[in-house]
Amino acid sequence: INQIVRSPGIYYKEDITKDGQSLHKATLIPNRGSWLNFGIHKKKLLHNELYVSVDKTHEFNVAVFLAALGIDIKEIYSDITHPEFLKRYSVTFFKDTYEEIEPNSDRISPFKEFFDTRIFNPKYYSIGHVGRYKLNQKFNLNVPKTVTDLTYQDIVAIIDHLINLEYKEGSLDDIDHLENRRVRSVGELLQ
Length: 191
Prior knowledge:
Elements: E1 3-6, E2 9-16, E3 22-29, E4 36-41, E5 49-54, E6 58-61, H1 62-68, E7 91-94, E8 97-100, H2 109-118, H3 128-139, H4 152-166, E9 181-184, H5 186-190
Antiparallel strand pairs: 1-9, 2-3, 3-4, 4-5, 5-6, 7-8
Helix pairs in contact: 1-2
């Protein structure tokens, strides 16, 4: 029996809170591996907080996520449309203190190890050819079809589009629409 399942790719949605605020979220569905969720928390006293979560359980500040990838958050200012949104993330709340987050510091190594095993290990994580095609189409990227793991360009494009939604730019996706589904055949289910 064939199944209709969600197709690998990135999907953006907007949730409305009880008090009428809109929360933008992005879900990266891989072909194999953990789902990555990107989102923006609305804080009353603080600025909005950009976060990344793995399988809706482990939630990290975006600066910690980028540092674990070896990227200083200041490096991506030139690659996004609204860099002012990320300016405050160079110093962030980290283990009860505000401090500079550096990509190669000892405090980042546990996070780096976590992401290296869960997300950036091709043995356990792959967005697949369909996911690569959808990311290239959505963000106008030129990453080769044979690259089925996440790249720097993918992550920057995902974060940029999410921030653009906060500025009322860009479009949302309907994850339940049939164009975002695919048929999983019996042969694929048996593997």
